[in-house]
């Protein structure tokens, strides 16, 4: 499939921000701004906002995702939420392996893989984050880090599973820092990730997989990033907290 057949996906990652009433108001304002887009719009919201957000997005083209999930179905795991729980309220997406979770909450490539598999089993679509640290970048390890993270995250998946998975390439040094990777560098890294998927699953799967860029995406840099051959959209943190900046990113092609 030629590259331009892949849809563009713009996913907001609210992180630990926005109360339910703020989520409802945000969605009611965003709805109008994005109603004509052919790009896919996803909001990944805190657990407490999920139910309210899902009610608010009914009859809109906005999709809702969670920011984490546990890999067991049920049981004595105080404080955790299972894929089945997310699915039963109609959550469609879930971010897995964000660098903040890897850094502060002991997420590993192994738990990422368990969470990806458990989510796909419930037909929840994972948005799997991979990305190198500044030190890894400066010591020339980027390609190795991101292709290894990708391979480990996708371990034991079928080609069909991989087609239902979104990858987000998020260089850690670009997250929340205002330092965006150059469009060329981001595209080259994403090509490496796509190359690894091709090696593991063949060209057809690799050409179908949506791979996003994340890290200080703003209205000012979105258009250039999204014009690159392999960048299929963005995972947006800070700029997803304002309707104005998020809708401008979604409408980059208007
Ligand atoms: P940022 O965050 O856009 O604020 O850099 C991106 C992310 O962490 O997903």
Characteristic key phrases:
254 residues, TIM Barrel, binds 2-phosphoglycolic acid, 8 strands, 8-stranded parallel beta barrel, alpha/beta, 44% helix
Summarize the structure.
The protein is α/β, with parallel strands linked by helices and 254 residues long.
Structure description:
The protein has helices spanning 20-34, 47-56, 83-88, 99-104, 109-121, 134-138, 142-153, 159-163, 183-201, 203-208, 219-226, 243-250, and strands spanning 9-13, 40-44, 62-66, 93-96, 125-130, 166-169, 211-214, 233-236. It has an 8-stranded parallel barrel, surrounded by 7 helices. The two termini are 25 Å apart. It has 254 residues and is of the alpha/beta class. The model has no long low-confidence stretch (mean pLDDT 97). Strand 2, helix 2 (47-56) and strand 3 (62-66) form a beta-alpha-beta unit. The chain is globular. The protein has a single domain (3-250), classed as Alpha-Beta Barrel (TIM Barrel), CATH 3.20.20. The structure holds 2-phosphoglycolic acid (PGA). 2-phosphoglycolic acid binds next to strand 8.
């Amino acid at each position: 499939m030629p590259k331009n057949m892949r849809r563009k996906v713009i996913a907001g990652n609210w992180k630990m921000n926005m109360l339910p009433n703020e989520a409802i108001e945000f969605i009611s304002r965003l709805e109008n701004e994005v109603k004509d887009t052919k790009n896919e719009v996803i909001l990944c919201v805190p657990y407490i906002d999920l139910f309210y957000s899902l009610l608010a997005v009914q009859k809109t083209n906005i999709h809702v995702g969670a920011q984490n999930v546990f890999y067991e179905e049920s049981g004595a795991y105080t404080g955790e939420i299972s894929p089945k729980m997310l699915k039963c309220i109609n959550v469609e997406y879930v971010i897995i392996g964000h660098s903040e979770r890897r850094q502060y909450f002991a997420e590993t490539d192994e738990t990422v893989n368990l969470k990806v598999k458990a989510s796909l089993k419930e037909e929840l679509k994972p948005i799997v984050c991979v990305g190198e640290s500044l030190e890894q970048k400066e010591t020339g390890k980027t390609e190795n880090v991101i292709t290894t993270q990708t391979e480990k995250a996708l371990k034991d998946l079928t080609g069909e599973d991989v087609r239902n998975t979104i990858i987000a390439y998020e260089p850690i040094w670009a997250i929340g820092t205002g330092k965006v990777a150059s469009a060329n560098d981001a595209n080259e890294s994403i090509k490496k990730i796509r190359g690894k998927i091709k090696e593991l699953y063949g060209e057809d799967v690799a050409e179908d997989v949506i791979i996003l860029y994340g890290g200080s995406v703003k209205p000012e840099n979105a258009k250039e990033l999204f014009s690159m051959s392999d960048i299929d959209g963005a995972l947006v943190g800070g700029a997803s907290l304002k309707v104005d900046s998020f809708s401008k990113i979604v409408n980059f092609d208007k």
